[in-house]
Description:
The complex is a heterodimer of chains A (about 400) and B (about 130). The N and C termini of chain A lie far apart (about 60 Å). In chain A, about 40% of the residues are buried. Chain A has helices at about 5-25, 30-50, 55-75, 80-90, 105-110, 120-130, 135-140, 145-160, 170-195, 200-220, 225-240, 240-245, 265-285, 290-305, 315-325, 330-345, 345-355, 355-360, 365-375, 380-395, 395-410. Chain A has 21 helices and no strands. Chain A folds into 4 domains: about 1-95; about 100-220, no CATH class; about 225-310; about 320-410, Tetratricopeptide repeat domain (Serine Threonine Protein Phosphatase 5, Tetratricopeptide repeat, Alpha Horseshoe), CATH 1.25.40. Chain B is an alpha+beta fold. Chain B has one domain: 2-Layer Sandwich (Alpha-Beta Plaits). Helix content of chain B is about 35%, strand content about 30%. In chain B, the strands form 2 sheets. Chain B has a 4-stranded antiparallel beta sheet with strand order 2-5-1-6. The longest helix of chain B is centred in the first third of the chain and has 20 residues, at about 25-40. Chain B starts with a strand and ends with a helix. The interface between A and B is medium-sized, with 10 and 14 residues.
Amino acid sequence: MTSADEAVARAHQDEWARVVAGLARRFGDLDIAEEAAAEAFATAVERWPADGIPPNPGGWLTTTATRKAIDRLRRESHRDTKHQAAQMLYDDSVPEPTGPVEDDRLRLIFTCCHPALAMDARVALTLRLLGGLTVAQIAHAFLIPERTMAQRITRAKKKIKAAHVPYRVPSAEDVRSRLAGVLAVLFLVFNEGYLASAGDDAVRTDLSDEAIRLTRLLRSLLPDNGEVCGLLALMVLTDARRAARVSPDGALVTLGEQDRGVWDRAMIKEGHALVRERIAAVAAGAEPPGRYQLLAAVNAVHTDADTAAATDWPQVVALYDRLLTLDSSPIVRLNRAVAVAEVAGEESALAEIDSLATELDGYHAFHATRADLLRRLSRTEEARAAYDRAIELAGNPAERAYLSRRQAELEG
Amino acid sequence: MPRYLMSVFGPTERTEFGDYGSKEEMLQAFADTGAFNEKLEKAGKFVFGDGLAEATTATVVDGRADQPVLTDGPYLESKEHLGGFWVIEAVDLDEALALATEASRACRGKVEVRPFQTAEDFQGLLDS
């Protein structure tokens, strides 16, 4: 890669969202913003190797994209062309006040993640307009045809325009409720990349990286928000274990059996620092931690132990108890039971898990957890049946490989 | 300002007290809806709104041929039909959704919010 190529790639990472968001504000049209930004980057690919890298790549890209957008509007507009173009060229108007934080990218995040859009549309728009992923990349990552993904994005943009979805940061009192939806989108993108099948599919790994990058961006825009910080910590502490998560033969390796030597120490350090930051903030009077902060804390406890046996399980149970007060869903109760097994023994954990049977019968992790406890209690036949059911329901090959190996290890 | 249609749907045929459980409930819903309408009018956001007679009273007219064809009943075959609606003006979708939330609470029904076409949309069609 030449230095110009590298500069374009870096600018794409650093400046794409800023360029699109700035254009979206100025022209009030996501289509124009996105296409003009794409054209500006294409021009950079052509010109930078010959002309040299501009001293301010972000400024160069914004100026070029703005010209492209005006050119396009000139071509498309039949009425009053000169007037319109002149107005846009000399539009130095101050951006409209946008609430607590004035950053174009923050407005773009809230627009892309608007609750009036379907979840899959929010995810697609966020990855396209903020992440700068191509439609083909997003389609590939979510295993759907490119045409379908293109339609999804087009339809969402059409709705934003026709229904007048506002391009602004919600008012202070609405930020909290709307932010929950934004964080859900980012976490979904992260998990889509993290829970991917065993194959080394680069695009799906990229999804986790992209989710982390976007969450970092959100954190820089909302530095005092505990849940944004918590989500970033959760992602970083989870991703730090990626290398230990799948064995060379493609089977999932559970937390207890992972080689902790290959965990990413720098990421763990960062995650721990974020969790400590929140603990200090809460001690200083910030509002109590939400679900992402609590899940991050659980992961901090796991990554704090040198061996699985050294894990502070009572602390994990205590954190799940707090999470239960926010979210008493059966999934949270299932995860809590796993920690209970380490503190109070398999029998009590199994009793708790069995009480979730009706709600979680279709969920592979329920049967996998149950199978593991039955195995530890030497109830071999029941364990075998539970593994069967878990394997049948498991969605990805790495998980099936792990469960099959476990089942084969059963005695008798 | 953008205009939105807020539609409320209900069963094809109504029970004794409209779609409400009792006469008291019905009267309370009417009162709440009336108060909401007044609020809309005062805020300058009310364009038009009213309740419709039951869907079975509708007639579909097809005037495209030489002789009009009349069909008894509503256009769509559906378990639920348009039962009433508002046309409102709101600055953007967020305001429209907030008003729809109040409307839904007042009339005790689900409310569909749909934007009207704008002059811009028409221009887009003409230019294409």
